[in-house]
Structure formats: structure tokens, C-alpha cells
Design goal:
With 552 residues, the protein is α/β, with parallel strands linked by helices. Helix content is 48%, strand content 10%. Its EC number is 2.4.1.255.
């Protein structure tokens, strides 16, 4: 009898591949399973099933499947890599680091493995210096060589002409980046900047349609290669190209690595640290996100705005004036950040709060799509840490309209650490929730603390784990204070720099003008004050005029 897979099993396997390509994951799983029963290759098919579980965020099933595959073939690089990803999302960070290190060692020329190695280590073992080293190693190996053959630019060098600004993003849809970019695109001054958007994702929605109305030049580049996109941007003569994805899905960093524009900037989409590549000239940030001294942890030059970003809240976000605990409900704390940010360190601190207050319950909002997957991912960690499961509610991902009603069932939001929230923190504050955050200096850890300090809410920034616990317990004992905050929360945000849309956009355009003058002066990485003050801009303009006078 032949050991070769039957024609029927091969047909089922191919049907699974086709269904998966069309994102019909349930049909794909059904076909893969049927192909196994019909005699398909055990190793290849189980590997595809494990990868399918990863794509659908069924991390416990993915881990079990990849372990089974590794039992069949201990040298399977795909299974080793798959286990690294599954263990990471299951909170098994030490094992995730070991497996991703092994995968990267086995295939040193795999850019994905090298990048995920940096990502996993930077969250599992927060160390800014080590993080810079790992991302720089990725940049030196995979990105920097692409820029060596870059052709010079022959663009109009007039210092005060309208600048052509290009935004590259995979998130121009119902996504956090869109909430930051909408007010920017709506308030750009056409006399100062001519705006181009290069949308790298094929997924579009009502938010995409709205953003398109704000932009004079919108390009869907989801089907273009990195090289083709580089050619298009050069053809458009973009002066300043802005990356809004960083090391997240939909990024086109290899287009930037080829040097698509004279000035290249990263902003907003990735606060995890340096991108690690030489051809990204600047990182737009602010003093709260990156205090003095942070420069040593970046390959890019830090350029600090007055405020890193604007915030526009979701349209449907009702405000509940009374904390739920004053409406006969148990006091409820909530972790609303992505579950990949949850560390054992934070969970153990929250456990101390629950132990001190047996009447309190904790809602953990995770990124899995179904309640079953959410529980399967997080519950083993909670059991291992001996947390009170009877007082923990696990919620899967929900639509934004539903998410923005969490203030009706939650009294206090708990920020994760050492990886903090960003957009989620702003959404929580808009709901009227206090957000308890840990103080930090590294950007990936300091985001929530910086937001709170900027709003004058530094009382909710804890200096230590003991302080974190004490501050939460004090808030639980003072529901009137929670009520008072809900009454003033939105006005506080509306009057802040976060929602001064026109002012923030003028700062941004002033920054772009400074970066353009830096380029004209031959200083692609300006060494002066990195904040767009008018006097700095005037000094640059004067320096440029003086140089031009000397060359006449």
C-alpha cells in the first residue's frame, strides 16, 4: 500500500488552502481536518492547522497543535516559530523568548523571525538598551542595505514652498491610528502642505470613506510591492514621508529603507521603541513620551512636538454620570488593554488588590474574537497565578460602540505595565474612568503616565507596586471622588492640548518646515532643540539664507 497521500486528500488540502486565502477559516479548518482523515501528510496538515489557529487567535489550540507537530519533527522551524508566537500571547514569555531565539538562530536570514525576536524580547524583558540593540541588528541586516543604491533627489529646494507630505499606513480604517489622524487631515493648511495618503491595507470601511474626503491625494497601494511603492512616491516627489505603522501589520518599512523621500519620519503607529533602521531620519514624539536622555535608545533622531498627538473620541460614546458601585453593583476594576500587554507582574499586583477587597471584581478585556478563545487564552495564566477566578470576568474583543459603554459597568481602569496603554487610556478617560498607571521613562511603558500628567491627573500615576495598590484601594473607598471625576472628565480633555486640533496641526506643520530646512542645510538629523518653536524655525531660515548668500 502506498504511503503517498491520496488524490482525494490532496484535493481537500488544496481546498483548505484556497478557503484560508479567502479568510474562510472555518471552512479551511474543516477541509484540513477532512484531508487528515483521507490520508493527507500528517506533518504538513497539522502544521497548517496550527498556523490557522494562530491567525484566528486561538492561542491555546495553536500551542497544543504546534507541540504535537514538534513531537513528530523536532527540527520543524515553522513549529518552533509558531510556538514562540503562541507562548507569547499565552503569557509564557520565558518559553517564547527561548523558541524565538531558536528560530532566529536556525534561519538568520529570515526578517520576520528577527523582527519578532526583537518584539517578543522587548515586551518580555523590558530593557531599552537591549531593545535598541535587537532592532538595530534587524535594521542592519534587512533594511539598511536597501538604501545603499538610493538615487539623489532633484526636487525644488525653495525653503518656503508648499511641502508635499506623504502618510503611509495600514490603519486608515476603524483603528486607533485613525482616531489620531482624522483631526490632522481635517486641519492641514493647503497653503503649507499638499497631503498624500498611501493606504497599504485592502480593508476599508466607513472610517476609510470619511478620511478620503479629507485628503486631496489618496492612493490604495495595498497591491503594490515595496519597490513599486518606492517608485510611486518618488514619482509624486514627496518631500517628507511619514510612517504611521512602525513594526505593525501593514508597514512598508522596506519602502522607507530604499529612501523614498528626502526626509523620512515615523510617528504614532508604533510606540514600542526604535525602528532600528538608518534611513528613518526622525521619530516625532514629545517630552512626556521620551524624556531627556531617551536619545540613546533610538537609531532615529527624536524630534519633540509640544504634544505628540491629537485625540478624537468615537462618535457613539455615552457618558454614565454615576459609578456602577453607587448603583448597587459590585465595585468593578477593568483591564481594557490588549491581552498581549498583560504581564504576570501586573496580574500579581491586581491580585493583591482583589485580596485586599473581597467585594471587588475584575474585568479583563482581551483581543480574542470569541468568549471561548478569550477564556482559553487567559484562564491558564490566572490559574497558575492563583487568582480568584470567581471574581474575574473575561471579555473578548467587542465592537467599538460596545467597548465605549464599559464605563457603565466599570468603576476604575487599570493600566498594564511595564507595557502601557495608549489609545485605550484615552478612550477610558473619555468614558469618565480614572486610569491607574505606573510611572516610567521608556516610551512603551510611559504612554499612560504621560497622558495623565499632561491632563493634570498625576495623582493616578503610581511610583511603585505598593503605591499602585494603595492608590486603587483609596479610590475604591471614595466613590464620590469617582463621581466628581466623571462630571469633569470630558471637559478636562476638551480643554487640553490633546483636543486643540488646529493648534496641534500648526505645530506639526511647523515641525515639517523645520525638518525641511534641516534637509536643505545638509543636517538630516538636526542637533538643536527638537521642539517646533517659532524662534528655532527662524534661526534655521536665517542660516539657510546666509548659506545661500555665500554661494552666490
Amino acid at each position: 500500500m502506498s504511503d503517498q497521500p491520496s488524490a482525494h486528500s490532496q484535493a481537500l488540502f488544496k481546498a483548505g488552502l484556497a478557503a484560508e486565502a479567502e479568510h474562510n477559516y472555518l471552512e479551511a479548518l474543516s477541509n484540513y481536518t477532512a484531508s487528515l482523515e483521507a490520508g493527507a501528510s500528517q506533518l504538513q496538515t497539522w502544521l497548517k492547522i496550527g498556523q490557522l489557529f494562530l491567525r484566528t487567535m486561538k492561542y491555546q489550540q495553536a500551542a497544543e497543535t504546534m507541540e504535537f507537530v514538534l513531537g513528530m519533527d523536532p527540527s520543524s522551524i515553522e513549529a518552533i516559530y509558531g510556538l514562540a508566537i503562541a507562548y507569547f500571547y499565552l503569557g509564557r514569555h520565558e518559553e517564547a523568548c527561548a523558541f524565538i531565539d531558536h528560530a532566529a538562530e536556525m534561519q538568520p536570514d529570515n526578517a520576520t523571525y528577527a523582527l519578532d525576536r526583537a518584539n517578543i524580547h522587548s515586551i518580555a524583558k523590558p530593557d531599552p538598551a537591549r531593545k535598541r540593540q535587537l532592532y538595530a541588528e534587524w535594521g542592519q541586516r534587512f533594511a539598511d542595505p536597501l538604501g545603499k543604491q538610493a538615487k539623489p533627489f532633484d526636487y525644488d529646494r525653495a525653503p518656503d514652498r508648499t511641502l508635499r507630505i506623504g502618510y503611509v499606513s495600514g490603519d486608515m480604517r476603524d483603528h486607533a491610528v485613525a482616531y489620531f489622524m482624522e483631526p490632522v487631515l481635517a486641519h492641514h493648511d493647503a497653503a503649507q502642505v499638499d497631503v498624500f495618503v498611501y493606504s497599504t491595507s485592502p480593508h476599508q470601511d466607513a472610517v476609510t470613506d470619511k478620511l478620503k474626503t479629507l485628503v486631496p491625494h489618496w492612493h490604495d497601494v495595498s497591491k503594490l510591492s515595496d519597490q513599486a511603492l518606492h517608485h510611486l512616491i518618488r514619482q509624486h516627489k514627496i518631500d517628507i514621508l511619514v510612517d504611521l505603522s512602525g513594526h505593525t501589520q501593514g508597514h512598508r518599512l522596506f519602502t522607507f529603507a530604499r529612501r523614498a523621500a528626502p526626509v523620512q519620519v515615523t510617528w504614532l503607529g508604533y510606540v514600542g521603541g526604535t525602528l532600528g533602521m538608518q534611513d528613518m531620519d526622525y521619530r516625532l514624539t514629545d517630552w512626556g513620551m521620551d524624556p531627556a536622555g531617551s536619545e540613546q535608545f533610538y537609531v532615529e533622531k527624536l524630534f519633540r512636538l509640544h504634544c505628540m498627538a491629537s485625540y478624537i473620541p468615537p462618535a457613539n460614546a455615552p457618558l454614565e454620570p454615576l459609578p456602577p458601585m453607587l448603583q448597587g453593583n459590585p465595585p468593578t476594576l477593568a483591564s481594557l488593554n490588549s491581552s498581549r500587554k498583560l504581564t504576570d507582574e501586573a496580574l500579581l499586583v491586581w491580585k493583591r488588590i482583589l485580596e485586599a477587597r473581597p467585594d471587588v471584581q475584575l474585568l479583563i478585556h482581551v483581543q480574542e474574537q470569541s468568549a471561548e478563545d478569550a477564556v482559553n487564552t487567559i484562564e491558564p495564566r490566572l490559574v497558575r497565578l492563583e487568582m480568584p477566578l470567581d471574581r474575574i470576568i473575561v471579555s473578548p474583543m467587542v465592537p467599538m460602540d460596545e467597548f465605549m459603554t464599559r464605563g457603565q459597568i466599570v468603576d476604575i481602569a487599570l493600566d498594564s505595565f511595564p507595557v502601557s496603554g495608549g489609545t485605550t487610556t484615552l478612550h477610558s478617560l473619555w468614558m469618565g474612568l480614572p486610569v491607574m498607571a505606573m510611572d516610567a521613562t521608556d516610551a512603551v511603558a510611559a504612554s499612560s503616565a504621560a497622558i495623565l500628567k499632561g491632563l493634570g491627573l498625576q495623582e493616578w500615576v503610581a511610583s511603585s507596586e505598593d503605591d499602585y495598590v494603595a492608590k486603587v484601594l483609596n479610590l475604591l473607598d471614595d466613590p464620590e471622588r469617582l463621581t466628581a471625576h466623571r462630571a469633569r472628565a470630558r471637559q478636562l480633555m476638551q480643554q487640553s492640548t490633546l483636543m486643540d486640533y488646529a493648534g496641534r496641526c500648526r505645530d506639526l506643520e511647523t515641525a515639517y518646515r523645520q525638518l525641511w530646512l534641516n534637509y536643505l542645510l545638509g543636517k538630516p538629523k538636526f542637533l538643536g532643540v527638537h521642539t517646533p518653536y517659532t524662534e528655532d524655525l527662524q534661526q534655521l531660515r536665517s542660516a539657510y539664507e546666509e548659506r545661500q548668500g555665500q554661494t552666490i
